[in-house]
């Protein structure tokens, strides 16, 4: 199956009230492992790249890796640029084949955010791509972006006006969620998700998924969080599986890189499959 537009993936998920795992990959191994997990679960999947990962590889090289690994996928897959405040990177990735972008302009006032997001939407449309928008920061630091301070939350009317006037295809609301590991159990404003979906018909994106309870995931997805971001869980799984294997290699004084790669891959596949099943994405491929 060719790469599918984010809007098609999320509109289906919203209509049928399941969540699509949007997993932040960090290299070729994690791309392949997440795709393998989605294939095994017969689920659509969103592969997300941070600005940090784009900078590390270079836009062209990273997209070439994605294309090479996704070319033969038999499930719907799309490539998304996560939290990007830089218009130059947005433009470069849209020209370079990304299917969607999150223009993260929450540090601007709402009027300027709206103006620039509208421009990004027009730019994306010209490239056949889609846009996720936000007007409030998500608490916590991820890939060197963000803040540990709780964000100011705008009224429902302001959020609805932003969604309708910009024409974004997906919206990331602040509902008490946070990037990284939660220091205590989060108290979420789930009703805000229901209200935004009822007012706009636009799918919501749930950020800060790692650490939420199964019940919280299920409730928020039922309310309209069609895109569910997973970043911390992948990073922790990838690095902890590496540490586990390397400690064993040190004890045995046997150093076999392919064993490390197999161990990392198996751990990431298992993590991704667990989340896909939890979000209700299994068997939803078309």
UniProtKB/TrEMBL annotation:
<dbReference type="InterPro" id="IPR013785">
    <property type="entry name" value="Aldolase_TIM"/>
</dbReference>
<feature type="active site" description="Proton donor">
    <location>
        <position position="82"/>
    </location>
</feature>
<keyword id="KW-0862">Zinc</keyword>
<dbReference type="GO" id="GO:0008270">
    <property type="term" value="F:zinc ion binding"/>
</dbReference>
<dbReference type="InterPro" id="IPR050246">
    <property type="entry name" value="Class_II_FBP_aldolase"/>
</dbReference>
<dbReference type="Pfam" id="PF01116">
    <property type="entry name" value="F_bP_aldolase"/>
</dbReference>
<feature type="binding site">
    <location>
        <position position="104"/>
    </location>
    <ligand>
        <name>Zn(2+) 2</name>
    </ligand>
</feature>
<feature type="binding site">
    <location>
        <begin position="208"/>
        <end position="210"/>
    </location>
    <ligand>
        <name>dihydroxyacetone phosphate</name>
    </ligand>
</feature>
<dbReference type="InterPro" id="IPR000771">
    <property type="entry name" value="FBA_II"/>
</dbReference>
<dbReference type="GO" id="GO:0004332">
    <property type="term" value="F:fructose-bisphosphate aldolase activity"/>
</dbReference>
<feature type="binding site">
    <location>
        <position position="134"/>
    </location>
    <ligand>
        <name>Zn(2+) 2</name>
    </ligand>
</feature>
<feature type="binding site">
    <location>
        <begin position="229"/>
        <end position="232"/>
    </location>
    <ligand>
        <name>dihydroxyacetone phosphate</name>
    </ligand>
</feature>
<keyword id="KW-0456">Lyase</keyword>
<keyword id="KW-0479">Metal-binding</keyword>
<feature type="binding site">
    <location>
        <position position="179"/>
    </location>
    <ligand>
        <name>Zn(2+) 1</name>
    </ligand>
</feature>
<feature type="binding site">
    <location>
        <position position="207"/>
    </location>
    <ligand>
        <name>Zn(2+) 1</name>
    </ligand>
</feature>
<feature type="binding site">
    <location>
        <position position="180"/>
    </location>
    <ligand>
        <name>dihydroxyacetone phosphate</name>
    </ligand>
</feature>
<feature type="binding site">
    <location>
        <position position="83"/>
    </location>
    <ligand>
        <name>Zn(2+) 1</name>
    </ligand>
</feature>
<protein>
    <submittedName>
        <fullName>Fructose-bisphosphate aldolase class II</fullName>
        <ecNumber>4.1.2.13</ecNumber>
    </submittedName>
</protein>
<dbReference type="GO" id="GO:0005975">
    <property type="term" value="P:carbohydrate metabolic process"/>
</dbReference>
